[in-house]
Amino acid sequence: MKYRILRWARRASQAFFLLLFFYLFLKTGFFGSDELSPWLSFFFRSDLYAVGISILASRTLAALSLFFLAMAASTLLLGRAFCGWVCPLGTLNALFSWLFRAKKRKFKKPPLKYKYLLLLIFFVAALYGMGLGAVLDPLAILFRAAATAIHPGANFIAEKLSRLIPALSSYTLVEPHLFYGALSAGLLLLAILLLNLVEERFWCRYLCPYGALLSLLSRANSLKLKIDLKKCTKCGICDAICPASATPFSGWKPGECYQCFRCHEVCPEKAIFSEFSLRKNPKAQSLNLRRREVLLTAASSLLALPLLRAEKRVLRPPGATKDFTSRCIRCGECVKGCPTGVLQPMGLFYGLENYSTPRLATELSYCEYDCLLCQYLCPTGAIGPFRPQTKKMGVARVDRSICLPFAYGQECIVCEEHCPVPTKAIKLIDVETITPQGKRVKTRAPVVVEDLCIGCGICENKCPQSPRAIKVYPL
Q1: 418, containing H or E segment
Q2: What pLDDT was estimated at residue 465?
Q3: 42, 86, 232, 345: most buried, per Cβ within 10 A?
C-alpha cells in the first residue's frame, strides 16, 4: 500500500515540476519590470551538470548558489531521484513511453558506458575552458526547443487564428520572433522523444550526460535497495519492469536507480524494500568501464578538442564577461527573455565552442537601450551586471559607398534619429558629394562617435538601405 502511495506521489511530483518548468518558461520575459527573481531560473541554478561544467570551465565559483548546493546534498542522500521525480525532460520521456509504447522487441542493448565516456569528453573540454558540454544538458535541450521552436510556433498559429476568428484576438500571445536555431533545437528534442519507441527512457538510460553525473554521485547514496532472499522466488519481474537499467535482482546498480519504487510495488512476494543506510550494499555492481577505454577517451579529447576552437569575433549580449563561452550553459534563458528577439543562438558556422551561445543578431533586430532583463535571467553570471549607460556590445560603422548622403547626395538622418544614446553616438556633418548623375550637392551625413556608440544595432535595423549602409561590428 505504501509503495502505491509513493507511486502516485512520484507522478504528482513529476506533474508539478513539469508544470513549474513551463510556468517559469512563460514568465521569462518582460512583464512590466526588468528586475526578475532568481526563482525564474531555478532549474538552471540547481543544475549540477551544466553549472558544474561552467564552474570548471571558467575557474570561478560565480555560478554557485544555494539551489546548486541543495541539489548536490539531495543527490548524495537520495541518489538519482532527480531523474525519477523532478526532471521535466525525464517526465516527457516517461509520458511519451506510456502513450506510444513500442512492441517488445529483441535488440542488442547499447552498453551504459557511452554516457560516462561522453561525460568525460565534456569535462575534458571544460578543462580547456570550453563549456560546450552544456549543449546536451536535458534542461537546456527542453528549454531551447521550447524557446526557439515550440513557443514561436504556438505564437504564429495563434496570430493566424486570431485573423480568421476575431473573437480569439484577446487570446493571442506575444509577437512571434524567428530564431536561427529553431530547426536543430526542435529536431533534437523530437529525436530524444522518438527514441522511447526503441526502449523506455532510452535517452535517460544510455545517453544523458547529466544522468551519468548523477549516477556517479549516487553510487554511495544513503537510500539502499534491499531484497529479502527468503521471500524472493527469482521471478525476475523487478528487472523486467525497471524503467531504468538498475536491474534490482540480477545486480543492482545504485547509480542507475531513479528511486521510482516500481519494483517494490510489482514484486509478488513483497521481497523488495528500501532503507536508509551508510553501509555499502553487497549486491551493488561496479561501473562497467575499462581503464583502457577511459584513458583512450581522455587522451583523444585532450588532443582533439583544442583543434575545434574557432576564433570568431561575434556580438555578445550586453554585460557579457570575457570568459563568456566558459560560463554560458546554453540554457536559452536570455534568448527567451529578450523582448526584441535580437539574441539568437549560434550555429556550427561559428565553431563548436560557440554553438548555441547567444549573439546579437543586429540584422534581425536591436537591443533595447533601457532593457536589463538578460543580466537577471542568466543563471551563471556569464552576463554580468550592467546599466544602460555602461553597456558596450560593439561599434557601428557607416559604409560610405552605399550610404544615401555619402553615395547619392540624398538627405537621410534615420540612424541619427533612432540612436538611443542621450548624447547621440551618431552625429550629422555637412558634406559635399557628387551624385551618380554627376551633380555636386551639399547635404548632411552621419558619422559614428565610437567612444559613445554602445553597439545596440537600432541604427542598422532602421537603415532604409539594402544592404544596410550602417552595421554593428564586434569590439
Answers
A1: helix 414-418
A2: 94
A3: 345
User: Alpha-carbon distance 115 to 122, whole Å?
Assistant: 11
Is the confidence at residue 39, as pLDDT, over 90? no
Three cell numbers written together for 148: 526557439
Separation between Cα atoms, residue 422 and residue 452, nearest integer Å? 10
Residue with cell 556608440: 453
3-class SS of residue 84 = helix
CA separation for the pair 165, 264 (Å, rounded): 52
pLDDT tens digits, residue range 80-129? 999 999 999 999 999 999 888 755 556 678 888 999 999 999 999 999 99
| Overall residue count recorded for the chain in this entry | 475
Cβ count near 308 (within 10 Å): 14
User: Nearest 10 degrees: CA dihedral of 323, 326, 327, 330?
Assistant: 130
Residue 410's identity, in one-letter code, is Q
Tell me the domain boundaries of the chain.
Answer: 2-276, 394-474
User: What kind of fold does domain 394-474 have according to CATH?
Assistant: Alpha-Beta Plaits (3.30.70)
Does residue 172 register a pLDDT over 60?
no
Q: What share of the chain is helix, strand, coil (3-state, %, to 5)?
A: 50, 10, 40
pLDDT computed for residue 38 by the predictor: 81
Task: Give the model confidence (pLDDT) of 418-455 as tens digits.
Answer: 999 999 999 999 999 888 888 899 999 999 999 999 99
One-letter amino acid for residue 57 of the chain: A
CB of 24 within 8 A of CB of 40? yes
H and E: helices and strands count for the chain: 21, 8
Backbone dihedral angles phi then psi of residue 241, each to the nearest 5 degrees: -90, -10
Residue whose cell numbers read 535517452: 203
Measure the CA–CA gap between 420 and 426, rounded to whole angstroms.
10
Supply 382's cell numbers: 556569464
Please tell me whether residue 397 adopts helix, strand or coil conformation. Answer: strand
The CA dihedral of 78, 82, 85, 89, to the nearest 10 degrees, is -170
Residue 186 three-state SS: helix
DSSP states along 286-307: PP---HHHHHHHHHHHHHHGGG
Query: What pLDDT is recorded for position 107?
Result: 67
Q: How would you classify residue 346: left for phi > 0, otherwise alpha for psi between -120 and 50, otherwise beta?
A: beta
Residues facing 129 on adjacent strands: none
**Whole-number percent of the chain with pLDDT over 70:** 94
Q: Is 251 left (phi over 0), alpha (psi -120 to 50) or beta?
A: left
